[in-house]
Specification:
Elements: E1 2-6, H1 10-21, E2 25-29, H2 32-41, E3 43-46, E4 52-54, E5 59-60, E6 71-74, H3 81-87, E7 97-100, H4 107-115, E8 120-133, E9 136-149, H5 157-168, E10 172-175, H6 179-200, H7 204-209, H8 211-230, H9 239-248, H10 257-263, H11 274-284, H12 289-298
Parallel strand pairs: 1-2, 1-6, 2-5, 3-9, 6-7, 7-8, 9-10
Antiparallel strand pairs: 3-4, 8-9
Helix pairs in contact: 3-4, 6-8, 6-9, 6-10, 6-12, 8-9, 8-11, 11-12
Length: 308
């Protein structure tokens, strides 16, 4: 199976490296100093689940050099989605499958519009990972799961083949029979988690230990759930409690990845997380006051530090 990873950041670098180490034909699209380091020293992953060094790693900044792939895994930031849809065109042939493992709930629509729904499947992942230095992916903790599936819930040869590739790589992978619900379940948590850790400038430990902060986090989850249900997303009745239980199981020192972007004055995915909850809430006349607070408190930071 020929797999192209478009966006060799934390998510793309980690899961792509696992697949490549297990023998898959993986090609990485990266850029800048990160690409230069991968070409010079290989792609390294540090993880409690096992370190990896891919040397050499098949890496380029030009998707046309790779040619048509069987699977294109998209793992760029949400603000780069439109650019990704344009740049991956050389990778996509008649039998190519495009799957986004990005945050948010809008990327799938972008790739459906670009390539047709028959060429896309849905995807989601749960992992705390980042580029610690050029060429090096740092996985913190042991959470590293991935899920994907056909939009209609059917099992297909292409999703079965991808599942087998992840299984061979030792990745905790699930072939979902309702991938839309999986994507929304993550979005409900992540929009709320990113909002409160950025607002408080604190990891989740002290937030969930404080009764008022914990209640704020729960209200944000409840608002996102209300928006999802207003859009017709089929969520379990106990989804709020499940998301809070998931929060309680996180390492006390864990931040959302958006907090790291905020702390380093990089561009934020705010518009596609709490911002999306607010916009959808307004359209559907669903109140979202907690996410309004997150949006207003962080929007002036959303573009990152201006270029010199």
């Amino acid at each position: 199976m020929k797999i192209a990873v478009f966006g060799t950041g934390g998510v793309g670098g980690y899961f792509g490296a696992r697949l490549a180490k297990a023998g898959a034909d993986v090609h990485f699209v990266a850029r800048g100093r990160h690409l230069a380091a991968i070409r010079e020293r290989g792609l390294r992953v540090t993880s409690a689940l096992g370190d990896i060094t891919l040397k050499p790693a098949q890496a380029t900044d030009d998707p046309a050099e790779i040619g048509t792939a069987d699977v294109v895994m998209v793992a760029v930031k949400l603000y780069d989605t439109d650019d990704a849809a344009a740049r991956i065109k050389p990778l996509v042939g008649p039998r190519t499958t495009v799957v986004s493992f990005q945050n948010g709930v809008t990327a799938g629509d972008t790739f459906d519009a670009a390539f047709g729904r028959e060429r896309t499947i849905g995807g989601s992942c749960s992992i705390a990972v980042r580029i610690s230095e050029p060429g090096v992916i740092e996985h913190t903790g042991t959470m590293a799961s991935i899920a994907f599936g056909e939009w209609d819930g059917s099992r297909s040869p292409r999703t079965e083949a991808l599942l087998a590739a992840f299984a061979k790589a030792g990745v905790d992978a699930t072939l979902a029979d309702d991938i839309e619900t999986v994507i929304w379940s993550k979005f409900i948590f992540l929009a709320s988690f990113s909002g409160i850790t950025c607002l408080m400038r604190l990891p989740i430990g002290p937030i969930r230990a404080d009764a008022e902060a914990r209640a704020m986090h729960r209200r944000a989850i409840e608002e996102a759930v209300a928006v999802a249900r207003a859009r017709g997303v089929g969520l379990p009745a106990d989804i709020v409690d499940k998301r809070m239980t998931f929060t309680d199981g996180l390492p006390a020192g864990m931040y959302a990845s958006m907090y790291h972007d905020l702390a380093t004055e990089k561009r934020l995915e705010l518009f596609w997380l709490s911002g999306a909850v607010v916009r959808m809430g307004r359209q559907l006349k669903v109140p979202t006051p907690t996410h309004e607070n997150y949006w207003l408190a962080l929007k002036l930071h959303a573009d990152g530090k201006p270029a010199p």
